[in-house]
Specification:
The complex is a heterotrimer. By secondary structure, chain A is mostly helical. In chain A, 60% of the residues lie in helices and 6% in strands. Chain A has 3 domains: 91 residues, Methionine synthase domain (Methyltransferase, Methionine Synthase (B12-binding Domains), Chain A, domain 1); 138 residues, Cobalamin-binding domain (Rossmann fold), CATH 3.40.50.280; 129 residues, Orthogonal Bundle (Globin-like). Chain A has 16 helices and 5 strands. In chain A, helix 11 runs antiparallel to helix 13. The longest helix of chain A is centred in the last third of the chain and has 24 residues. By secondary structure, chain B is an alpha+beta fold. Chain B has 3 domains: 120 residues, PAS domain (Beta-Lactamase, 2-Layer Sandwich), CATH 3.30.450.20; 180 residues, Beta-Lactamase, CATH 3.30.450.40; 229 residues, 4-Layer Sandwich (Phosphatase 2c, domain 1). In chain B, the strands form 6 sheets. A 5-stranded antiparallel β-sheet of chain B has the order 2-1-5-4-3, sandwiched between helices. Chain B has a 5-stranded antiparallel β-sheet with strand order 8-7-6-10-9. In chain B, helix 4 runs antiparallel to helix 5, helix 5 runs antiparallel to helix 7 and helix 8 crosses helix 9. Chain C is of the alpha/beta class. Chain C has 4 helices and 4 strands. A 4-stranded mixed β-sheet of chain C has the order 1-2-3-4. The chains are: A mainly alpha, B alpha+beta, C alpha/beta. Chains in contact: A-B, A-C, B-C. At the B-C interface, strand 18 of B face helix 2 of C.
Amino acid sequence: MTLPIQVSRLRERLWRAVVDGDEYSAVRIAHGALAEGIEEETLLLDVIARVQEKVGTEWAADRISVAQEHAATAINERVVAALAHRPDGGPYRQGHRGRVTVGCVDGEWHAFPARLVAEILRLRGWQVDYLGAQTPTPHLVAHLHRTNPRAVLLSGSIPTHLPTAHAAITACQAVGVPVLAGGRAFGPLGRYAFALGADRWAADARGAAAALEAELPHPDPAAVRHIVDDLPHLADQEYTMVVQSRGTLVKQTLRDLEDRFPALREYSDEQRERTAEDIAHIVDFLATALYVDDAEVFTGFLLWTAEILEARSVPAVSLVSGLDALSDRLRDFPRTLNLLREGTTALLERAHSPAHGPGPDLHV
Amino acid sequence: MGRAVCVPPLVCASPSSFADPRDAGVNVGATWGDAPYPVLVIDRDGALVGLNAAARRLLPRGNGEGTRRHLVPSWLSAAHRRLTERAAGTVTAPLTGEIDERRYEAHATPSEDGAVVWWLIDDTDRRVAEAALYSSQERVAVLSAVSSRLLSTLNVPRCAEATVSMAAEHLAEAAVLVLPPQGRRHTLTHARRGHPVQRVVRRIDPRTVQGLAEALQGFPPVPARWIDPDGLPDWVIPEGFTGPVGSVIVTPLPGHGVPAGALILLRSGTERAFTEGEEVFARLFAARAGAALSAARLYTEQTAITATLMRELLPPALHTVDGVEYAGQYRPAGDEERVGGDFYDFHPGSESAQETLVVLGDVAGKGLDAAVLTGKIRNTLHALLPLAGNHDEVLRLLNGALLTTQHTRFATLVLASVRRQDDRVHVRLTSAGHLPPLIVRRDGSVEEVPTRGTLVGALPEISSVGAEAVLGPGETCLLYTDGITEARGGPLGDEMFGERRLRRTLAECAGLPAEAVVERVQMLAAQWIGAGRHDDMATVAVSAPAKVPPGSADREGAGEHGGRRK
Amino acid sequence: MTQHPATEFSLTTVSAPSTLIVRVAGELDYDTSDELVDTVAAGLARAPAPRHVRLDFAALTWIDSMGLSALLMVHRHTRAAGAALYLDNRPDVLERMLGHTNVLDHLTAPVTQDAPGPPKEGDVTGAVVS
C-alpha cells in the first residue's frame, strides 16, 4: 500500500472514531499507524491535523453539532497527548537545537494548531515550552525573561485577536526575542503578521520548523516601538472609537433593525441575544479591519458568516441590513464607512454570483 | 560655529592691504610682523620671501640662507601652487596641515603682485576639543544604547551576552564577563568583535588576573597600565583572538549592594593601548551593565522563589481515575497573576473501592493574600482526608481551623466524593455556602444539586445539608465559582453571564467529555467578558464517560483506564 | 466606556438616640468594604454607645464576598458592643448572597445580653430580646 493511500485510509478511520466520540479507538488508530511505520510527523500533520480541519468545515456546513465539534476536538487533543506521552517517548526528543516558546494570543481558545506546532518542533529536536491557549501577554513576557528562548511562536486563529497579538509581538521584541506568527488570524500569506511587525510568518507547522532552522535574527530591543509606528492610520482614532462604543453600537443597531423588521420584536430573548451577538461580531471584525487597515478582514468574515447562516437556513440579507444600520451610526468615520461599503458590496456580489445562487429567502 | 570666526580681525577683505582697518596708516609689514600668528609671504614662484617672528619660531630650518633657511611644509607649498595657478585675487577657504605635530589652519591673502600672505592659525586645541566633544557625544549615545538594550532583558545569560557583545563592539577588541562564582565555578561570557558570543561555566582562579579578584569583590579597578598583558591565563582569551594581548582593563561591575561581576577588556598588541579616557568610559559602561545584571539576577531569584511557593498554590492537574473523568480550569482575575481566591483540589482514592474527593471553592478577596488562604484550606482538607466519608465533620473541623479573631475572611466550597459503580458514577456533594453544583443529563436537561450549608472560616457554628447524585454515561456534574455567573460583558457590554446562560451552555454539553465541558464553559464566559475586567473563574467537571473503554464495561466496580497516580 | 452607571460607593451615617443608622449605597466590595467596618466601629465607640445598628441597603447595587466578609466583621463589632444588628431593605443581590452562604440568621441573631427597647417599626429582619 502506498503512503498516500495509507494516509487517506487512516484519515477516514480517525475521522469516524473522532466524530463518534470514540477516544479509545482514535488513540488505538494513531498508535497502530506508528507501529505500521508511519512517520510521527506525517501522522500529526497529514492525518490528525487534516481530520481536525474537517471538524471545522463540517461544523460550518452544519453537518455536525457544536457538541460533536467539541467532543471531536477534545479527542484529537487526547490523541496528540497520547502520542507525546507514550512510554518510549519517540525518537529525537533531546531538544538539542535550542529552546523555543509556543503559545496562543491572549483570548485565543483554539490551541490545537499551536499544540501541533509544538509537537512537530519537539520531533525536530527543539526544546519546546508550550504555553497553551490564550496566554496573557504578561505571562508570556515573564516566561521569556525566565527561559531566554531563541524565538516565540505565536498562534492565532481568529482575526479579532490581532490587536492583542500586536501587543504581544511588540512586547516579545522589546525583550529581544524574535516572533514567528502563524495561524489563520494572520491573513493570507501572513499579511497581517508583517503589518504588525512580526519577524517571520509561517503558513503551517512545517513552515514554522523551517523558519526556525533558518535562524531568526534577534530584534533590536532598543528600538522600542509604539503601536502607531507600525500602524500610522490608527492616528485617526476610528478604531478606538468603534471599540469604545461597541456596546452602544450593538444596542442601537439592534433597535434600528427592529424598526426595519418588526418581526424581530417577536424574537425570544435567546434569539435576540443571538442577533445581538451577530452584530457584536460584525463590530469586532469591523474594528479589526480598522486596526490593520485592510478590508479583507471584514469582507472575509462577512462572506464566511453568510455561508454559516445559509447553511442554517438563515437569510444572509440580514447582514446587509446590519451593515446599513451601522453605517447610519458611524457617519462621521470615513475609513469605517468605506469598510462597511466594501462589506455590503461583497455580500451583494456573493448573492448575485451563480456559484452561490440567491436562496429563496433572500428577497424576503 | 563657522571657521571665519577664527580668522583674526587683521585679515580684511581688501587684498591690497594688510592694514588693520582701525589703524589704516600703520606700516603693513610691522602689522603682520608683530602678529601673534605665524605669517609667511610666498611669492608667485613659491619662494618664501618673508616671515614674521612667530613663523620663524615655528618653521623647521634647512640649509638655506636668510628666509630660505626656513622650510615651507609641503602641504602649504602644494596649496600655494594650486592658489597661484588659479586666477589671482580669489580668496580660498582655509586649509589645514600639520607642522611639528600641531595642526594649523592656513588662510591665504593674495596680493596683486602674485605673492600670497599666509596666516597660520594653530587650531590643534580646538580640534582636540572637538574630537573630545564628538567622542563624548558618541559615548553618551553608546551608553544610552547600552542601557536600553541591557534593561530590555531580565534574563541573566542574555544580559551577560549583551554586555560583552557591546563591550567588544564599542570598547575593545574582545571582552570577557566574569560572573560571581556559584560554588567554585564561574560563568564566563566571551565576545570577540564581529563574532558570536560564547558562554562557559568553569573553575578559574581569579587571582591569576591582576585586579580580577578585587574587582569581583567590588574594589576599585587597577589602572590598565599596571596590568601585565603577557601574564593572562588562557581562559581569559576568547577563541580566535590572534596575536598577543597589548593592553587590558579589568573593571568591577557594581551591582545593587553586591558586586555583579567583573569585565575584562582586551586589545591586541597591534592596536593602541587603552587611554585614561577609555578607562573612565569602561567604568561608566560597567556601572550600567552591573545595574542591569543585578536587576536580572534579582528578578531571577524572585521568580524562582515565587515559583516554588506558587507550585503549592497552583491548581492540580486533573485526570481520569477509575473510569471517571475529571477536568478543571482556572483563570485568575489579573492577567499578571497565576493564583487567586478560587481553588480546586483532587484526591484520588487510594484503591478503586474508595471515593475520590474533589473540592472547589472560593476565598473572599483576591490575589496572593487570598491564594495563601486557599493553600491553607487545601492543606487542611488534605489532612482531613481520612474523615472524607463524613462531609459535615470535615467542614466543621475545617471551619474550626480557619476561624480567627483577626478577620472574617471566609471561604465557600463544595465537597464532592465520587465513586464509580458499573457504568454509573455516584457523587456525594456538600456545599458550604457555595453555589450549588449543576448536573447535565444525557438528554440535555440541567439540574441543580440540592445541597446547602454555611460558609466556613467566619462563624463559630456551621451547618450543612448534603445531597447525592448519580451520573449515567455521558452525564456531567459541574462545580463552578461565581466568577463564571457574575462575568460581566456580552454583546451589549453590561450584562451578567448569569445562571441562565450557564445552564444553556451546559445543555449543549450533554455527552461531552469532562475536559470539553470545562473548556466550553470557561471559553464562553471568557468571550462574554471580552477585554473587560473579571473575577477569578474556576470550574471542575466530573463526568461518567459516554463511551466506556473496551474490555472494562463488563467489569464490576472500577475500570482500568486512566490509572491511579499517587 | 462604562455601560452601567456605577453608583458611587457612599456611606451616610445617621445618629439617632441609641441607634446608629448607616446607609450603604453603591458597590460593597473589595475596594470599599473596609470603610463600612471602620464607620460602624467608630459609631459604636462614641458615647453613649448605640444599642442598635441598622445598615440600610436600599441603595446597594452590588456586594461581593469581601462585602459579605465586612458584614461578618461588623457583626463581631456589634456583638462585642452588645448592640443588635439589622440589615434593612435588602436588595436581591444581598438576599441571594446571604441565602447561599447561610449567614442571615447568624448576622441578625438576637444579642444575648439585655438590650433595651424593641426593634423599630418596619424592621425587616432582626429580632431583639428585650
